[in-house]
Amino acid sequence: MSEKTDITMEKIVSLSKRRGFIFPGSEIYGGLAGTYDYGPLGSLLKENIKQSWLNKFVHSRTDMYFVDAAILMNPKTWEATGHVDHFSDPMVECEKCNKRFREDQLEDKEICESCGGKLGSVKQFNMMLQTKVGAVEDSASTTYLRPETAQGMFVNYKNIVDTMAPKLPFGMAQIGKAFRNEITPRDFIFRVREFEQMEIEYFVNPAEWEKYFEYWKDEMIEWMGAIGLDMSRVHDVEVGDDDRAHYSSRTIDFEFEYPFGQKELYGLAYRGDYDLTKHADYSKTKLQYTDQTTNETFVPHVIEPSMGMDRTILAVLLSAYREDVVGDEPRVYLDFKPNMAPYKIAVSPLMKNKPELVEAAQRVFGQLKSKFGNVVWDDNGNVGKRYRRQDEIGTPFCVVIDYETLDDQAVTVRDRNTTDQERIAIDDLENYFVEKLS
Ligand code: GAP
User: Using a 6 Å cutoff on CB, does residue 199 contact ligand 1?
Assistant: First the structure.
């Protein structure tokens, strides 16, 4: 029944809008290119992804320090890291319609794909979004919205060493917004100008970087499985010398087969001592580690697993999207793992105008909500319509209270994937769902 389908981006974009996952940013004003707003369902999905990431990479470990650094940073940060000079994409402009393109993404590098005009010469376009800080607008007040969360961790390296007395290897972890003035934002939430990153900077003894690079590769793969990514569509690709970021001497990209091609999902980079050395140099601050047993002092090297939230959401949606036929009716459902489902259970009375059913259903709803949290009340339309709606938002189970319930104190539980229904006693519901949702 649950066949995988040829998924188009149109189907995902339309479902995301129709069911309250993702809306175009500032839509009533005609939108703002490269921005999207997460609706109630999308926000819950995001929270589930964050929770899963935190559980795996922070809460279940003893060597990880979770931080929440400011988006606005002293602009010297970005001079030190080379972002001011190097964080750019090659751009060409059409001489006729003035549209701008990323040169490395063009098939025809001579002719404008929009109007057929001639494309001009390649220029480097810095992707950092500038802003002004303070009441006086001079060059000294210019700073940037951070293009990666990473630097908020590197500039706090000394604070962590001084306050937490960590033993090497240890990591810093952060989830937060990053901004890039992408020349051509495209493919829905794949390439946007405002996005969220979940990043780890893992500090190691330089002699051990290769071991920890492999370790983090495995950790990332394990997590992708845990959030329900279709691993047959995930590929790890060694990034060549010419394509690596300026700070990295080894990078693996995890690529995902999206409907628009196989493209980057996450990155795993060996950043060496690049960032700490640069910041030490520019800030005149010692950024080192002293091993208490050997007394050796050195600059740790860094392994960086970097995961984009928005691409995660896209890959989770694409991995979960299913179409099948139930009876004669085609249907769409999202085969989320229970830990990703925005709502775990939907509860409804068979008919919403029968007070005795509503009352019994509300009791069951209250009981399940206090135990499982994200349980939704749904009495819109008839039961068939409710099932379709809950299928489309990936709710694993629907519970319906009917007239029999009043006699036998049991309810109908319907499974999203199989559409099978079974009668479960109200007293057994909690245990039933603990097992099913684990
Ligand atoms: N600190 C390293 C770093 O920022 P990156 O490969 O440039 O490396 C890391 O970005 C991740 O951030 C990417 O793998 C992707 O998931 C996400 N990402 C980067 N640019 C993005 C954009 N314009 N829109 C959405 N996600 C983006």
Answer: yes
CA of 360 to the centre of ligand 1 (A): 49
The response to whether residue 251 sits with its C-beta less than 6 Å from ligand 1 reads no
User: Closest residue (by CA) to atom 4 of ligand 1?
Assistant: 148
Q: State which H helix or E strand residue 171 sits in.
A: strand 170-179
Residue 161 confidence (pLDDT):
98
Q: Is 253 in the pocket of ligand 1 (CB under 6 A)?
A: no
Cβ pair 426, 407 in contact under 8 A: no
- What is residue 5's predicted lDDT score, i.e. its pLDDT? 57
Helix (H/G/I), strand (E/B), else coil: 309: helix
149 HSE (CA, 13 A, CB side): 25
* Per-residue pLDDT at 143: 94
Q: Which two tokens stand for residue 92?
A: 């060409």
Distance CA 79, CA 393 (A): 45
pLDDT at 95: 93
Domains, the chain, in order of start with CATH, read: 3-70+147-318 (3.30.930.10), 343-437 (3.40.50.800)
Q: Rounded CA gap, 54 and 48, in Å?
A: 10
d(CA 169, CA 63): 7
Does residue 191's CB lie within 6 angstroms of at least one atom of ligand 1? yes
Per-residue pLDDT, averaged over 6-12, amounts to: 94
CA 389 – CA 94 distance, rounded (Å): 45
Q: What is the 3-state secondary structure (H, E, C) of 276-299?
A: HHHHHHHHCCCCCEECCCCCCEEC
Give the pTM: 0.95
CA gap 224, 121 in Å, rounded: 41
Q: Is the CB of 197 under 6 A from ligand 1?
A: yes
Ligand 1 centroid to Cα of residue 308, in Å, is 6
Structure tokens of 97?
A: 């319609």
136: pLDDT strictly greater than 50: yes
At 210, the pLDDT band (50, 70, 90 cuts) reads very high
User: How many angstroms separate the CA atoms of 283 and 155, rounded?
Assistant: 9
Mean pLDDT (the chain, rounded):
95
Distance separating alpha carbons of residues 382 and 349, to the nearest angstrom: 10
pLDDT (mean) for 390-401: 98
